């Protein structure tokens, strides 16, 4: 959903704005990568 929204906004907005959305996507991917690792570590602690 977020990717779809970013693609839509990227098409509406011009190059500089698309670069900003790309930066937002990369930061979101970093957050997504961090969250599962935290969840896995918590699961290991519980087990």
Low-confidence stretches: none
* Major sheet characteristics: none
Q: How would you sum up the global shape?
A: rod-shaped
User: Based on helices, strands and strand pairing, what is the structural class?
Assistant: mainly alpha
Name the helicity range: over 70%
Mean pLDDT: 59
SSE arrangement, N to C: HH
Rg over CA atoms: 15 Å
CA(first)-CA(last) distance: 33 Å
How much of the sequence lies in strands comes to under 5%
Number of helices: 2
Tell me the number of strands.
Answer: 0
Summarize the structure.
The chain is mainly α.
Structure description:
Residues 1-47 are annotated as: Disordered. Residues 10-19 have a biased composition (Basic and acidic residues). Residues 37-47 have a biased composition (Polar residues). By secondary structure, the protein is mainly α. Helix 1 (2-12) runs antiparallel to helix 2 (15-46). The mean pLDDT is 59. The protein contains 2 helices and no strands.
Key words describing this protein structure:
47 residues; mainly alpha
What's the SSE blueprint?
Blueprint: H1 2-12, H2 15-46
Helix pairs in contact: 1-2
């Amino acid at each position: 959903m977020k990717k779809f929204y970013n693609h839509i906004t990227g098409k509406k907005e011009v190059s500089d704005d698309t670069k900003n959305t790309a930066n937002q996507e990369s930061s979101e991917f970093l957050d997504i990568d961090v969250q599962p690792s935290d969840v896995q570590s918590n699961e290991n602690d519980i087990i």
